[in-house]
Structures are given as C-alpha cells and as structure tokens.
Amino acid sequence: MPRHILDRLKLISAYSTGQESNVVGPSALMVETTVRCNLLCPMCPRTGADYPNEDMPDSMIYPLLKEHAEMGGDHVYLYGLGEPLMDKRIFDLLAYCKSLGVGTILSSNGSFLNAERRKKLLMSGCDHLLLGLDGATESTYSHYRVGGKYQTVVRNIRALAEENARLGNPIYVVVQFIRMKENWHEQDKFLEQWSGVAGVSEVRIKDEDIGLDEHRTYEKDGHLRENPCHTLWRGPMVVRWNGDVFPCYHIASGGRPLGNLAESSLSELWNSPRMQTMRALHSEHRSGEHEHCKTCPAARPRLPLLLGAMALRGTTVRRLVPMVEKLAHKYPALLSEKRQKKGI
Q1: Domain that residue 47 falls in
Q2: 231-276: per-residue pLDDT in tens?
Q3: Which of 294, 305, 251, 246 shows the shortest CA–CA distance to 270?
Q4: Residue 320 falls inside a structural domain
Q5: pLDDT tens string 31-67
Q6: Is 118 within the bounds of a domain?
Q7: Considering the entire predicted model, what is its pTM?
Q8: CA nearest 210: which of 251, 178, 250, 187?
Q9: Rounded-to-integer distance, Cα 75 and Cα 126, Å
Q10: Number of folded domains in the chain?
Q11: What is the CATH number of the domain that holds 23?
Q12: Cα–Cα distance measured from residue 286 to residue 302, given in angstroms and rounded to the nearest whole number
C-alpha cells in the first residue's frame, strides 16, 4: 500500500480513537518564511506590533521542510504574517517542497507579482495561490490594504491569470474578498469583476468568522460536546520565523509556543506532553478547560466531513473549502449540531 494512503488511514484511526501520541506527523504545516511585509492592514496582527524585518534562516527552514516530509507531511502553507514574495528564496522553497512530494499553498497580497516573479511562480511547482484584495474599488481596497496600490495589484493578478490559463492552469488561483464592515457592499461588484476570468480558479467571499459557534452542543454537565479539533491530529502546526512552534494558528496569535526548533525537533514537539494533554482534553470533550481552545472561533464540522477531509490530499481540501463555507452559511445544521446548553 502506498505510504500516503497508509498515513491517511493511520490519521483517521488516531483521530477517531482519540490517540494522544499520534504515530503520523502533522500532514499540514504552516511555515512563516518571512515576517517582512509592505502593507499595514488594520486587521492584521502584524500592524502596530514590533515585528522585525526578518526571514527564517536557511539552516532552519530547509531541515524543517525535509523533516515534515519524512513525517508524512502532505502539504505546507509557506506564509505567515509576512508577504512571502518579499522572501527571495520563496521560489526555491516551493520547488524544494515539490521535490519532496509535498503540496504547497501560498498567500500573497499581489503587490510584487511583476513579470519576472510571475514566470518564476508559474514554474515553481506551487499548487495553490490565494490572492487577497478585499475591495472592488481603489478607495475600499486602500482602507484595508494600507500601503498597497490597487491598480498595480489588479494588473498583476490579471496578468498572472492570463499566463496561468495559457499554461493550462498549473496553479489553482483564488482571488479572495474577506467580508468586513467597510467593504461588504462591494461583494457583488467584486464577484462581477473576477468571476469567469480565465486563469482564476475560484472567487472566494469569506467572512472573518464563518459563525458556526451557535450550533455547538453541550453535554448535561455543561461541557461542550463536539468533535475534537482536527488540527491537533492533522495540523497545520505553525512555525514562526524564529523557530517557535505552536499547535495551531489561534495559539500562535498570542499563546505560548510548544518549543523552538533550535532546541527540539518537529517530531518531538508534535508528540510533546503539551500536545498529548490538549488531545486528551478534546477527546474527553473538555476543550473548554484550555485557556485558548475555549476562545477559539474555529468551527468544528460533523464527523463525516472531518474524516472525508482527512482522507483527501490537503491541496484538494483547500479547493473544497469555499464550497463548504457556502454550505455552512446556507445549511449550518448539515455541518454542525445545534447548540444546547445545560438546563435549556
């Protein structure tokens, strides 16, 4: 049996049985190659914080990607709080992941997609590219993408889409609009602008929070009854530019790291006592006892949807996410159970 199939079966078994020491490494990993960025987006944690203009060292990032692949890694998100196209190594990193058999997902603001970078990106082996615009006009775009040049970004994206289409769409390109207070009125115009553009695979309208929290269910003793958070078994684990490793993006936004790659390997941290404790809390429906899990906004879908996602390649799952988000808004009960509190 091919290893990737065996690993997915092991993952499904470990998650279904609440196995605390997972034999399969995280199939997904988020690696912050750089923390540098050209924008000051008001909704980004980077804005207003004292982040250095640094990249993850070569001596750390290449061994990390190799270890992730050796642990059964399926796909990697090569971005964090920075703009990945400001990292001159990004195309080499994408190609390196490709050589390891690991799928790649990139998120960019599109500012640096000039002709040279577009060519390199299309030849890099990148699987999935998310391009954030968040506006259909220059004024709205500038409100959220402070420091960006709307016309330049639109021109860059359209040129990339045209070249992507001409090459047979080697990259799954997603143009994204995060629906917020000052831009929701431009949603329809945004869809009109980008729907049907050759080389653009998906136009994604995304809420800051998909809002399934009201459909969570509580046990009679008041504990939250829901499927354990799949991130603790599947990933993505998050590795910041300085080597700090976190269980998930929510904890990476303000919590304590599991450790640092300068002192521990990824595999050691993946099966560390803290990770095992978190898995146990979730398996026992006691996630509300964890200081960060109890405030996490992420939805936890029904078991069939979770297991189905675990059976698929990560880049395939990413392509299905927008469709699932649309279903979550229209038919929330299909994806998670109705919330019922003790005594109600």
Answers
A1: 3-108+209-335
A2: 999 999 999 999 999 999 999 998 999 999 999 999 999 999 999 9
A3: 246
A4: yes
A5: 999 999 999 999 998 888 888 899 999 999 999 999 9
A6: no
A7: 0.91
A8: 178
A9: 11
A10: 1
A11: 3.20.20
A12: 18
